[in-house]
Amino acid sequence: MGHQRFFLASILSASIAFVGCGSKTDSSAESVLSVTPASSTAASSVAASAQAAVFFDDFNYQSIDAFYGNGWKVRTETGHPGIKGATWSAEGLSFHADIPDTEAGAVRMSSVTNGTGEKTRHTQFCHARKYREGTYAARVFFRDAPTYGPDGDEVIQTFYAISPLKAPMDKNYSETDFEYLPNGGWGEDANPAMWTTSWDTFQLEPWTKVNEFTRVEGSYAGWRTLVLTVADKKVTYYVDGKLFSEHSSAVYPEDFMSINFNLWFMPKGADGSLGPVDSPEMREYQEDVDWVFFQEGVAITTAEVEAQIADMRSKKVTYVDNVQEQNPALPSPCGL
Question: pTM to 2 decimals?
Fold first, then answer.
């Protein structure tokens, strides 16, 4: 979701392996798993995977009403995070059938600013709050530069899952984030970097946070396949099939979460952030999402996710959702 970051050295005393852009490491826990000969354990895992509930959206929409009809919401609630006074609306959401390197098109978020709250529009969309343990995945197109206007704003392009914060320092709060910052932010330099953050809890006033994060510097512009697994009391993140980070049981999700994407501008002063560039000229950043996927109760590899999506596409399936709501269904606000 994009709160300011905080590194818990005591929590992260366990070693974290990751592979980032430009790394010379060419193997990962996931890539090893995908080529390991089948065993009785692996066979059991595959069988469990085949029976698990699945959510998949290829974002093949002709109208916003059809999008809403499949359970999506668009944020209109103002407030944290982002530039104070900014609006959040569906105006920045659009559907495109002709985006290169997609099969059914994609959904696009477009957010604009001139550095002031009055002229800033953030974008966010959310699915039902019924996801917890399992595999989350999305194919996302990140950008390093604005569509128009001056470059340099500290902008956050995301894919994440989140539960509501019921009270300050809520013990059951849950959040798991992929966040791409092409112009730096959170007190780091202006170089592009991918962040993954797993949250235990936080409060806004006074600002207090408990989380684990991993930052890997380098450009992630272009199409990226993001996979997150919540299983076996650890939270594991992959980018393009390579292990990016692993976070501990201390930040393991305890509550059901909604699936979210958002695109917003960082305000000045957020953990040392520089905020928007000093220019009154309007500028626009965009993020595209080709598809999103969730499989309940199992941790599967990127290759297995892609194989399932290829199979659904071969059958002309563009949307499926057999992940059950809780009883009664949980409130699913599209906000913080």
Answer: 0.86
